[in-house]
Design a protein that fits this description.
161 residues, alpha/beta, Uracil-DNA Glycosylase, subunit E, 6 helices, 34% helix, 20% strand
Length: 161
């Protein structure tokens, strides 16, 4: 039986953040590395680097990339039980308070989801919110239906001005 796990990071947001990227919940590797999307096979930072031309190898570069591109990061799940890092293994989820966050950051005009789980949780809890929503293909290497170049094209289409 797994125990409850609480989200370890604060959202990364800036006064001029325009797009909030929402994942589901950090991987076990991200917990260990104390930052978003740090599993070595996750393609998130590689994709953002590909589409922006900015380096994203270390935490400071990743923070700078987000600030420069007016992107923010957080996750839908505040706490849950889990067996491993796969979204299908998350259960008894408690969601983060997205409406309050959006009130605190009125510059956010779009939410982008990095997976179906995040999107489904948002829609079932906050579907009443009138904010633009876009779906991004999962940056997980486990999502192999799409190669990284195709994922990058989708990210560029939705995240770049």
């Amino acid at each position: 039986m797994s125990s409850q796990v609480i989200h370890p990071f604060k959202p990364i947001l800036f006064k001029d953040t325009k797009i909030l990227i929402l994942g589901s919940f950090p991987s076990i590797k991200s917990f260990e590395n104390n930052f978003y999307y740090t599993h070595p096979h996750n393609q998130f930072w590689k994709i953002l680097s590909m589409i922006t031309g900015y380096p994203a190898l270390i935490k400071d570069q990743k923070m700078w990339l987000l600030k420069e591109t007016h992107l923010g990061l957080w996750d839908m799940i505040q706490s849950c039980h889990r067996e491993n890092s796969l979204d299908i293994q998350l259960y008894d989820e408690e969601v983060n308070d997205i409406p309050t966050l959006l009130e605190e950051y009125p510059s956010i005009d779009t939410i982008a989801f990095t997976g179906r789980k995040a999107q489904e949780l948002f829609e079932s809890n906050f579907g009443y919110l009138s904010i633009k929503r876009v779906y991004l293909p999962s940056p997980s290497s486990a999502y192999a239906k799409m190669n990284i170049q195709t994922k990058a094209q989708c990210y560029a289409e939705h995240l770049l001005p």
